[in-house]
Amino acid sequence: MKKILFLLFISVTIISCKKDEVIPPKELPMPNVIDTTGFLEIHIANVVNGAPLSLHTSTYVSSANDTFTVDLFKYYISNVQLVTASGYTYTEAESYYLVDHSKSNSLHLMIKKVPSNHFTSINFTIGVDSTRNVSGAQVGALDPLNDMFWTWNSGYIMAKIEGHSPQSPEPTNKIVYHIGGFSGKFSGIRKVSLAFPNSADVTRNHIPILNLNADVYQWFMQPNFTDFNTSYFITSSNQESKDMADNYANMFSVLSVVN
Questions:
Q1: What is the DSSP letter of 140?
Q2: Between vectors from CA 115 to CA 113 and to CA 120, what angle results, nearest 5°?
Q3: What is the DSSP string of 1-44?
Q4: How many CB atoms lie within 10 A of CB 47?
Q5: How far apart are CA 141 and CA 241, in angstroms?
Q6: What is the pLDDT along the chain (259 residues), one digit of tens a residue?
Q7: What is the separation of C-alpha 134 from the centre of its chain, rounded to a whole number of angstroms?
Q8: What is the pTM of this model?
């Protein structure tokens, strides 16, 4: 009898312990966070004094009345910022674009992860910031294979134009302007700020389009440019390249904002 009672006591104790055992709740999957960000699309039209830029064929006239053709036109746009009327600024992460007139898809930039808002201006850099100039091997738009890189000492070419002019004393009448330098007084990096004629209204379901002009004519404006007879070949950082960078800082203008 005592043995039976003891076994009953043990059974009750075991059952009681099982009842008191705390079973942790199952981990539930985290709910999907609703992404309320959107995009802003930028369309760039490269022109020369208002006329569409056409490589190899069309002839243009500089502010010094020199005639020229364009064979190559490439430049970096980086560190894009969108600004509202109240001063809120959205800065795009990993914001580096190489615009190459020979590649039509490079004339359309898609600014990503833009918070829903009404933006009234844009800031960006022509060129590549000093940090990325000394960050070792790059990929994508910053890949040295894009032929926009000198050396790890000199860094990226911020913008370049190549073409021909009968006024150039070079044997083949070539004109070449490779503008670089990421530090010091001859840096080719330039900041651009442009106001919009109306707000760009970004929402999750709506992509506004910003239409920009980039005018090659501004590269060859007085007083920072003389003529193709005396200034026809720039491939290093110096006073001439600085002056030309000061010129191309003014090449962008806003055509329209389409919502």
A1: G
A2: 115
A3: -HHHHHHHHHHHHHHHHHHHPPPPPPPPPPPPPP---EEEEEEE
A4: 17
A5: 23
A6: 555 544 554 555 555 555 556 666 666 666 566 677 999 999 999 999 999 999 999 999 999 999 999 999 999 999 999 999 999 999 999 999 999 999 999 999 999 999 999 999 999 999 999 999 888 768 999 999 999 999 877 899 999 999 999 999 999 999 999 999 999 999 999 999 999 999 999 999 999 999 999 999 999 998 899 999 999 999 999 999 999 999 999 999 999 999 9
A7: 18
A8: 0.86
Residue 68 is inside which H or E element, if any?
A: strand 67-84
CA-nearest of 210, 199, 205 to 37 is 205
**Residue 43 backbone class (left: φ over 0; alpha: ψ -120 to 50; beta: rest):** beta
Contact 79/58 with Cβ under 8 angstroms? no
Q: Are 243 and 184 in contact (CB under 8 A)?
A: no
Which among 85, 60, 50 is positioned nearest to 253, based on CA atoms?
50
Residue 122, both tokens: 């844009």
Q: Give the Cα separation of 150 and 156 in Å (integer).
A: 6
- Round to whole Å and give the CA distance between 144 and 157: 10
Alpha-carbon distance of 118 to 54, in angstroms, equals 35
List CB contacts of 169: < 8 A, sequence separation 6 or more. Answer: 229, 232
Among the listed residues 130, 136, 140, the one whose alpha carbon sits nearest the alpha carbon of residue 98: 140
Residues contacting residue 170 through CB under 8 Å, at least 6 positions apart: 232, 233
Gap between the Cα atoms of 31 and 255, Å rounded:
42
CB atoms within 10 A of CB 163: 22
User: Do 186 and 238 touch, CB atoms closer than 8 A?
Assistant: yes
DSSP state of 128: -
